[in-house]
Amino acid sequence: MGEVALKYRLMPESPDSDIEAIVSEIPGVLPEDANFGAHEVKPFAFGLKAIMIAIVGIDRDGFATEVEDGLNSLKNVQTVILEEQSLI
Question: What is the pTM of this model?
Answer without folding.
Answer: 0.92
